[in-house]
Amino acid sequence: MTKKELEGMPYIVCLIDEFPKLFSDKRNKSEVDALEGAMTELLSRGRHAKIHMVLAAQNPVKKHMVCDIANLDAKIALRCSNHHQSNAILGRTGAHRLVGRGQMIFDYYADIDRRLQGAYISEADMKQQLGEIAKTFEQKNKYPLDINELDLSSAPTESSEGNPSIPGKPSAEDKFNDNLLKVIELLLDQGKIANSAVIKELSVTFRTADNYMMELENYGLIPPLNGGRGARKLNPIEKINISDLKVFLERRGYSEEGIANSIGKIQNTTISQSSPESDVLNVAESIAEQEEHVADPEADTFQVLPNATT
User: Does residue 140 belong to any structural domain of this protein?
Assistant: First the structure.
């Protein structure tokens, strides 16, 4: 095929869902080897023939992903159940720490570890978008747009609002974000937060509380746990992703004044945590606690500690 003929050919996008099953279901080694060779060839040279592969797996297992996925120019990992699945997709851990709900890690040839947010599209929304494309599609080659297999008559009109099947019912994402706002307000009021405080405030499980804490980490509001336990203090303002936090607060109905007040709380809290006066006060409180343990309440005198010099 000449270069000119190739330019007139359409792009071919091959989508394979649960592609590891292609290999795990094969018991004949010769079939596995032939399939592996074909997949590797397509991944390494297919793009030059306008053939592009999209491989998906819900439960990726490295031993079943026998084709060379290193030739994939881009990789996307949603939340994984464990670090082994993350390693199978990205070649490293990290995706098992995502909070879910469309949060993903995107690696491609020019950059890695980019965090993106995916959006759910319902069947009705998909049909609406395809209907709009069909109306405005301009034929420029001999390959027509064929979407006749889809019934677009059920596509909602532009005036449709919310979920037509459950009118007025908030989505799970809205409920999560409403609770996240409560957690953020709790952190700003107290200057620190722990899983136990989130559980008490929202009456949720430990795992759900951990998801909210991870969202606080994503906004830079609190430091990573790093194996420790207990409450985590509000980060200094320079470590906080203020732009993303502002967007979140705006979407939850905060006015400009309300956002400014929240930012002011962050500044005041972090300044008070790092001020010399607070350090002196903490030292004084620590000394007072030690004296309470050493003092004899009946004699109102200090006891001589073992090995203490007189």
Answer: no
